[in-house]
Amino acid sequence: MTDNANPDARPQARINFIYLHATDMEAMRAFYKDALGCSEIHYRPVDEHGYGWSVIDMGCFQFMIHPDKSAVKLEGWSMQPGWDGGTVPGISWSVVVRNEDMPQVIVRLREMRAPAFDEEPQWCQDSYWSYPVQDPMGNTVEVHSIPDERPESTVWTD
Asked: In the β-sheet with 39-44, what is the strand arrangement from edge to edge?
């Protein structure tokens, strides 16, 4: 149905899925589910034809991860506002975690040897803790938490 009363009305669009291709779907599942704590809402194991998927709920959209032996792992860090560093003009995303969960998320990322831009989280824009890492396909993922108030020290302590 169109809005005849408003000829300038536009349809509303939103992201439903972002498709990620992975040479190792299980490593990507572990990164998003186990390390970051995201919910996997659908899973189909890879079959003999190489077909399968994992759907990870990211809150307002979903990642659909597909196995793809020809997928190319990204090199370098994507540029992203907020923290100094990335030089690659590519897509990246930020994932917010609860303040109380941030230390344990960092431990899990370190345990899985996720490449981190800095050894410790950095205080950014005088408003949040930032810990940029790369997922198993080299995508830049800024893991961050936003405290209710500015900490006394802006040097991260575990």
From this structure: 17-22, 62-67, 53-57, 39-44
